[in-house]
Amino acid sequence: MTRAIRTELLKLGTARLPWGLLGLAVGLCSLHNILFDSNAGGTGHTSIPSLATYAGQSQAIWVPGELFLIATVLGVIVASGEFRHRTATGTYIATPNRGRVLAAKAIAASVMGLLFGLTGAAVSTAVGLGFTSAGGHHVLLSADTIARYAAGATVGSAILAAAGVAVGSLIRSQVGAIITVFVWGFVIEQTIGSVYNSAQPYLPYTAAAAMAGVKLGSATTSLPFVAALALLIALVVLVSVIAERTTLNADIT
Amino acid sequence: MAAIEIRGLTKRFGQVLAVEDLSFSVPRGTVTGFLGQNGAGKTTTLRMLLGLVEPSEGEATIDGQPYRKLADPLRHVGAVLEASNFYPGRTARNHLRVQAASGDIDRARITEVLELVGLADAAERRVGGFSLGMRQRLGLATAFLGDPKILILDEPANGLDPEGVRWLRELLRGFADDGRTVLFSSHVLPEVAQTVDNVVILDRGRMAADASLKELTASAGVRPVVRIRTPNADELRAALLADGAEVKIVAGDRIEVVESTPERIATLASELSIPIFESVTETPNLEEIFFRLTADHAEETLR
Question: What are the structural domains, with CATH classification, of chain B?
Fold first, then answer.
């Protein structure tokens, strides 16, 4: 298993796309936080509270939800890229145990997802605290809170990257798998969350955001960190098992 | 025990019968050519052998075991099925690093195989910019990486220039002469004829032949033809017919003779004082045998 994980990490390290996605994540976190933090205390309905307040500073360092989406896409590419570039043949000739390959890919993508989350959290925190200091406000957030938010973003990205591997194994078409992830993130999850408020905390991107400190509206309570973590791990296991029982062992033609 | 054993292998894709009840074995220390027209089922058979496609019936084993059960597959079998199955953004060396990591193979071997296939100078170039011939060479480097006992290659000569084809032929022969085993598919029939010990011919998923080249030539009924140019064609034809040969006049001064030998023809001509200006013997080649064995089905398809 160690050999398979090392191989998948080497694949990630020697391909350009993961690093391009990391750059995209950094860019998105920077842009998102600069736009919101520079308008803190404004009157727009999406404006965050003043940076002089605890709530404003909290929201100023939240990572954008798109970070989790990018981490999921990374996982999808790790799995479905094997079919897009027809490298699955070589991969399964080298490691015929497909379950082992799936697990190794999930772990390798999680490691890269950790990097995405950690970098995204660092960027968002730096921008948020930078605007807070530049506005002449005292930082009201404790180091523990900042660390907890960063840890949540990091772990959430890692698990969603693993979920992306499961989705990419289930849907071999890379375009189809990426569209599925985007449709889920931007349409289905938001629709379900809006229509059924009580279900919202249990949706994957919402749960990952909750781990990173993001609070839902006053009508709904976010899942606690451990519950959100358990939910995301269960999701990864569930989709992986479905992939293992269906497409994973299908013929490589 | 044969190095590779295929027994009753059948594969259906829905209603399509791709391979039907195929059985053959590849003896250790030999080069076996696996021939067939496009869509004959060659690649499907190789994929079943390598555990990539699940057989509908039958089994394929390597040293008595299904490929998926081999303890260290890359050190046991070197296999390349597609020349294009590389991540285009990765360099040749990095591609081999990935393969070496998956087989726990010493990284020093990477430089060795790059030199072996003549890609040492292109090691740091991205595979996306490689020609088909370079990709074939990289595929072969991948196959040789684990210093395996068995090679399984799908159309390895595709994209190679004439010099590359000769290099490949010598490489595969040398590999077999070391006591190792090669099974490769090809449609470049003259090339196969110069390389192989045995031939397996597949015709629309079914076995058409499994024999050594010599046996195949004898059993396929393709006989050597002696072409003679003589000013006394009619007279020589009559003499040869009386001698039991089959003779056809193809032009005024040219005849084609089967069921005889150049020596016998020359003796008869000499006895009758018939001058012979030219005598050429054409031995049957693999291409003729191949088309003869697969002709019936090709005609059926055309109808």
Answer: 4-219 (3.40.50.300), 225-282 (3.30.70)
